[in-house]
Amino acid sequence: MTPLARSTLLMTTEQCRLCQTDSELQLSHILPAFTYRWLRESSGNGHIRHSLEPNKRVQDGLKRYWLCSSCEELFSRSETAFAGRLFHPYLAASGRVIRYSDWLLRFCTSVSWRVIRFYRDEGHLNNWESDALGHVSEAEIVWREFLLGRRQNPGTFQQHLLPVDQISSASADLVPNINRYLMRAIDMDICRGSRSIFTYSKLGRFIILGFVHEPNLNHWKGTRVHATHGFVEPRKYMVPRALGGYLNDKATKMRDALDSVSERQKAKIDEAFRSNVDRYIGSDAFVAMNADIELFGDEAFSPRG
Ligand SMILES: [Zn+2]
After folding, report:
1. In the structure, how many helices (H) and strands (E) does the chain have?
2. Residues contacting residue 245 through CB under 8 Å, at least 6 positions apart
3. Which of 155, 241, 254, 285 is the most buried (most CB within 10 A)?
4. SS3 of 54, please?
């Protein structure tokens, strides 16, 4: 192959999934890179494991060639604002009042948009009936147009943000790693209730829900992300009861996945733990582990109790 032919091949372009212009696409994260960076740096041993593939250390989350450089830049602006003005300040002091402006709705919408594109584009919704797919397609268009500045707000396809923190009172049905899940997990999903559909993105202490179809808006209080400004502060949040069960199920899945780690991997984890004990003590992973020990005692250590 001549050098010319080779460079011609490298210059092939594809359509950006956000602005739909043909461009050389960038490799970008589905869930923002800074959350994985935080998870690694606060793990006490510098490594993370994907909850569904715990035998592999996953350092950096899922990535796809989806966006042109200007759309990538658009997303990174609201990510920087979210990381610097909310994500890290909340970790430092979850009880404080934090004011946000329009960057929060942009950030949440960009995350929900990426999640809905991931599940739809990669075939996870193929067996959904046409009504539900219609809602998905409508939400995707509205979120995309909002992100591109062609709409003032996402209308009924609202974004909701639920900050979470340590649970300090146990109820009988809670799984004994619930605090580790709530405080630290990075996760995504598309969920369907009896009538509602929403995207679910969990970035450490923050849960972002993108409403794809929600006929019961009055079941949610205090979680809606406003278009121009608002506050994240200690308050009574009201969410549907089913969400509590859903989070507990998610924590159970994480526990089961970690429980399936091979003996060889368990030995590696033990060794990494022993050689990093000093770094682990005082890390956020240690704080979350202790929160589970306070609630569940020895049961917190062994996945199967
Ligand atoms: Zn673009």
Report:
1. 11, 12
2. none
3. 254
4. strand
Tell me, in angstroms, the distance from the centre of ligand 1 to residue 105's CA.
Answer: 19
Compute, in degrees rounded to 10, the torsion defined by CA atoms 18, 19, 22, 25: -40
Contact 292, 254 (CB under 8 A): no
Q: Is the pLDDT of residue 1 over 60?
A: no
How many Å lie between the centroid of ligand 1 and the Cα of residue 17?
7
Summarize pLDDT for 139-159 with one digit per residue, the tens: 999 999 999 999 999 999 999
CA 68 – ligand 1 centroid, Å: 4
Surrounding residues of ion ligand 1, Cβ less than 5 A: 16, 18-19, 68, 71
Task: Tell me the CA–centroid distance for residue 21 and ligand 1, in Å.
Answer: 6
Model pTM? 0.89
Distance 123 CA to ligand 1 centre (A): 22
Look-up: residue for tokens 């000093």?
278
Higher pLDDT, 90 or 275: 90
